[in-house]
Design brief:
The structure holds two protein chains of two kinds. Chain A is an alpha/beta fold. In chain A, 37% of the residues lie in helices and 16% in strands. Chain A is built from nine helices and seven strands, in the order H-E-E-H-E-H-H-E-H-H-E-H-E-H-H-E. Chain A has helices spanning 25-40, 74-84, 96-102, 104-112, 153-156, 162-168, 183-201, 216-219, 223-237; strands at residues 46-50, 65-68, 89-95, 118-123, 174-179, 207-212, 241-245. Chain A has a seven-stranded mixed β-sheet with strand order 2-1-3-4-6-5-7, with helices on both faces. Chain B has helices at residues 7-17, 32-44, 55-67, 78-93, 120-124, 142-159, 169-173, 215-233, 254-268, 286-293, 312-319, 338-349; strands at 3-6, 22-25, 48-51, 72-76, 98-104, 135-137, 162-168, 175-178, 205-206, 237-240, 247-251, 273-278, 280-282, 300-305, 325-329. In chain B, the strands form three sheets. A seven-stranded mixed β-sheet of chain B has the order 3-2-4-5-7-6-13, sandwiched between helices. In chain B, strands 10-12-11-14-15 form a five-stranded mixed β-sheet, with helices on both faces. A two-stranded antiparallel sheet of chain B has the order 1-8. Chain B is α/β, with parallel strands linked by helices. In chain B, helix 1 runs parallel beside helix 2, helix 1 runs parallel beside helix 6 and helix 10 packs across helix 11. Classes of the chains: A alpha/beta, B alpha/beta. The interface between A and B is large, with 36 and 40 residues. Strand 2 (65-68) of chain A pairs parallel with strand 9 of chain B. Bound molecules: thiamine diphosphate (TPP). Residues 52-55, 71, 95-98, 122, 124, 126-130, 135 of chain A line the site of thiamine diphosphate (TPP). Thiamine diphosphate is lined by residues 52-55, 71, 95-98, 122, 124, 126-130, 135 of chain A.
């Protein structure tokens, strides 16, 4: 009997085993990005930028040209790459500490310049890599290593809604917030990533996909509880949806 | 054909002649002519000019551009150079070529906008984190703003290292006759490591992180081997009447010009004075300085700087204890005075050996 291959890893993924914890969203989103790159046939012209944070080793997992960036500087590094070789498809991949804390200026200014790049923003409401400290996206009351009594807005401010901030700028063409807790939302996330890449391929401008993603380890929840927490708590502060779409006809 | 040109403009045009088409910068006095020049000229030559939101962003844009293999540059002045240190460390660690110019002003802090030389340590000893070096070129003439900038791009590509043009604001602001090369054709270096999309080849990764076993030490060893090779192959200095000198003035940038003028004057009075002008602060001309120190008739060196004496340390390390090293300097944008340099020199000349 002839064996028929019905499911395989995307060509854009390497054979390396990822180091992510069970229930973490990074691995899921990595795969989605790889699938999109395969489907769009852009593996040989795509450059990814790995962040500082849990995805710091991302260049081990994607079989494409990859660049590192200093903590938060993806927006600037991506600008340098894309402006030097506009024919490349350039995407940045960043966590909330990377993008919304130390790199907020680089993030907003790259978006405001309308750089023709795609930023994938993993919002897990904490700093995963350094051991679960408060992030700009940590929810009020959420316990972290540096807010042991729960985030107190009178001391640490409120969570920053980054998708909304970016959508508020004139230049970005597409901004969406999704999550990855179910088959359905994972599929939706993939569509968002695909649309963002497509718009870049058509030189339409800056695209941004924020993805709510679990960090069971640092939330001290099991993966199932973590997914529930995203749905019940995180989406309250970070509503899902399309925040900006200048090209609704492009799917 | 020679023409009157301002130091900062000369450096800008030289970068374009050298094939730089990707400039990222942020305004700061006394280098603002460069950002303005590049904003205008890059458009004309089909290049990229971005006024970044900060020096931190500018140097990281340079990082991204350098990673794709193009010739790229940023320029700044002292407080901005401090902000760039993060990116400079990453560029060095990633073996990425680029040119950075620091048109130095008075510090520390916001200081002032007058030309100074207080960033020597930061430039030569590694201002960012980790063990790294830059090639540091120190022009003193508008002509050298041109020549060193072009050379800088070639050295950067040859050794895969950031090259720093370290110059006091006076040279940046100075207008004097200089000549742009007519027939320079930018040398094209193979950059098989560059990020161009992994078409028909294994993927490239520009990285500065190794969490595995000995990765970082191995990269450090590679860097140190590179610096040793650069030291063996390249150094630049100018000697002016040093052969029979009893006192050698050592300086770079504007103070070196003053020292040369003093040397000429004192020679006319029959005093055996010479000037040793540093043109590359890394690699430092340590062997030649040692040779000069071993000359019997030499009584000592006088280092003249627009700083608290940062380069004195490198001169001392070079000549060891063979000859005394003296220092005279001014800070905060003040010029070393001719009278004081002469007085110091006469005092050394009076020493009986
Ligand atoms: C300049 C600098 N400061 C601090 C760090 C330490 N650091 C590494 S990752 C990180 C936070 C990462 O959090 P996030 O971006 O949310 O990503 P996650 O790990 O949650 O995926 C920090 C602070 C660093 N690498 N560089």
């Amino acid at each position: 009997m002839e064996l028929k291959l019905i499911f395989d890893k995307p060509k854009t993924m390497t054979d390396a085993k990822t180091h992510y914890c069970p229930g973490c969203g990074h691995g899921v989103v990595h795969r989605l990005i790889a699938e999109v790159i395969d489907e769009l046939g852009i593996r040989e012209r795509t450059v990814g930028i790995a962040p500082v944070g849990c995805a710091v080793n991302a260049y081990e997992y994607w079989d494409i040209d990859m660049c590192e960036a200093a903590h938060g500087r993806v927006g600037a590094v991506a600008t340098g790459i894309k402006r030097s070789r506009p024919e490349l498809i350039v995407f940045g991949y960043q966590g909330d500490g990377d993008l919304a804390a130390i790199g907020l200026a680089e993030t907003l200014h790259a978006a405001n310049r309308g750089e023709n790049i795609t930023i994938i923003f993993i919002n897990n409401a904490t700093y995963g890599m350094t051991g679960g400290q408060t992030a700009p996206t940590t929810l009020p009351g959420q316990i972290t290593r540096t807010s042991p009594n729960g985030r107190d807005p009178s001391n640490e401010g409120y969570p920053m809604r980054i998708a909304e901030m970016i959508a508020f700028l004139e230049a970005p063409v597409y901004v969406e917030r999704t999550e990855v807790t179910s088959t359905e939302t994972i599929f939706k996330t993939k569509q968002a990533i695909k649309k963002a890449f497509k718009l870049q391929m058509e030189n339409k401008g800056y695209t941004f996909v924020e993805i709510l993603s679990g960090c069971p380890n640092e939330w001290h929840l099991n993966p199932v509880e973590a997914n529930k927490w995203i749905e019940s708590e995180m989406t309250k502060f970070f509503p899902l949806g399309v925040y900006k779409d200048k090209y609704p006809n492009i799917k | 054909m020679k023409q009157f040109v301002k130091g900062n403009d000369a450096l800008s045009e030289a970068a374009i002649i050298a094939g730089c088409r990707h400039y990222f910068g942020y305004p700061i006095t006394p280098q603002n002519e460069i950002t303005a020049y590049m904003a205008r000229r890059m458009k004309e030559v089909g290049g990229v000019f971005i006024q970044a939101e900060s020096e931190t962003a500018a140097i990281n844009m340079v990082f991204g551009a350098a990673a794709t293999g193009v010739r790229t540059m940023t320029t700044t002045s002292s407080p901005g150079f401090s902000l760039m240190q993060e990116g400079v460390s990453y560029l060095a660690a990633g073996h990425l070529p680029c040119v950075i110019a620091n048109i130095m002003r008075g510090g520390p802090g916001l200081g002032n906008i007058a030309g100074a030389q207080g960033d020597y340590f930061q430039a030569v000893k590694g201002g960012g984190h980790g063990d790294y070096k830059l090639i540091v070129l120190t022009p003193a003439y508008v002509q050298e703003m041109i020549d060193f900038t072009i050379l800088g791009f070639d050295l950067a590509d040859k050794y895969l290292i950031p090259v720093l043009i370290l110059v006091d604001g006076i040279v940046g602001q100075m207008v004097e006759p200089a000549e742009f090369p007519q027939n320079y054709v930018p040398k094209v270096y193979d950059k098989p490591w560059a990020l161009t999309g992994a078409k028909g080849r294994p993927k490239n990764v520009v990285r500065t992180l190794w969490l595995d076993d000995n990765g970082v030490e191995l990269n450090n060893i590679r860097l140190q081997q590179k610096y040793a090779r650069i030291k063996a192959e390249f150094v630049m200095y100018e000697e002016y009447m040093t052969e029979d000198a009893e006192v050698i003035l050592v300086a770079y940038g504007t103070p070196a010009r003053i020292c040369k003028a003093i040397t000429k004057k004192m020679r006319e009075e029959g005093r055996k004075v010479g000037t040793f002008r540093i043109q590359s602060a890394f690699p430092f001309p340590e062997y030649r300085l040692m040779e000069l120190a071993l000359q019997k008739h030499l009584k000592g060196f006088l280092v003249v700087e627009m700083s608290a004496g940062q380069m004195v340390e490198d001169v001392r390390l070079s000549v060891k204890d063979y000859k005394p090293v003296y220092f005279y300097g001014r800070m905060g944008g003040a010029l070393p005075e001719e009278k004081s340099i002469v007085e110091h020199t006469l005092e050394i000349l009076r020493i009986k050996v």
